[in-house]
């Protein structure tokens, strides 16, 4: 009977650890924060996934956010430009090439 209790305790602890790791994996995958944690492991065991993650990360760093077309402030700036944003009455007229 004592051997059965020891076995159940070890099996229960093992199951709890595996369940916690599975829960943590799904949580990290959903939030997208696993790159730093899983990067070295992916680099060793799955180099293709590691390269793909690096490509996505590089692309995200390069892309500048576009202003929304219905952004209120972009419409206000278009109607009322700041001094120096474009030609004003004090600027000299452009020179013609002809």
Can you describe this structure?
By secondary structure, this protein is mainly α. It has 4 helices and no strands. The mean pLDDT is 76.
Write the layout of secondary structure elements.
Blueprint: H1 2-31, H2 35-45, H3 47-62, H4 72-79
Protein name: Secreted protein
Keywords: Membrane, Transmembrane, Transmembrane helix
Region (Disordered): 58-98
Mean pLDDT over the residues: 76
Report the structural category.
mainly alpha
Question: What is the N-to-C order of secondary-structure elements (H for helix, E for strand)?
Answer: HHHH
Question: Rg from C-alpha positions?
Answer: 29 Å
User: Main sheet, how many strands, which sense, barrel?
Assistant: none
The helix tally amounts to: 4
Distance between the termini: 105 Å
Low-confidence stretches: none
Number of strands: 0
Region (Disordered): 58-98
Organism: Phytohabitans rumicis
Biased composition (Basic and acidic residues): 58-74
Transmembrane segments: 6-25
